[in-house]
Amino acid sequence: MDRFLLFLGCFLPSVADYSKDQHGYFMFSDFFCYIPSRNPKEVQYLIDWYFNMELTMQYNSSVGGWTGFTPAGLITAAKFNADKHDVVQRILERELVCQRSVEMVYNGTEEAKVEPNVSLQTVEDNDPTLECSALDFYPKHIRLTWLSNGQEVTEGVTFSDVLPNGDWTYQAHTYLTLTPGKQDHISCMVQHASLKEPKIYNWESSKNHTENYIIGGVCALLLGAVFLCGGLIHYKLRRRSFAI
Question: Name one GO biological process term (predicted).
Fold first, then answer.
């Protein structure tokens, strides 16, 4: 399920600034709308209140009020919670700013989705390492998972950062170091907002290719032998009929 955090920055001027050497008092707040689904009732409204770069208190609509984290924050939070006007104001802010933005946020992000181009390759021959690359996708969040015989692999796995391409798309890579002599069915599973369900990409080792060629060759020889035997039997039967 897609989740979105709508950031609403509010940069407030200093409540007091009596110092001339830039060491006065400074206050600001961050406003957030946490949107876990299209259901407006699940929207969470958050306010982080800072004083001199220290988080002093927080408003959380799920809690239903302010929570203080410092001595001054505890006093101010209690004052705000007792203020009926502040209580009504936060309820209206959640409704007008957050809940009414749900459809806009989801529609805007769902329209802009680009499916990743995925490739698997061996990057080191001596110490076999597989690379699963997801290229040119949007939005940024993606999950790449290595599977061995259908089970998630965690050992010998490394990930790159999700890197911007400079054209609003992204790329990501993950690497798996193979265990020598261990012959498992290796796959890379990709989960992304542009995909209705996870996609699994299988890796074909050189040994598997060789085995496939050998099996194909044996099947061709057997099929040729069957046709040859059938032709000889048909030839002998026709020759016998002419002799009679």
Answer: immune response
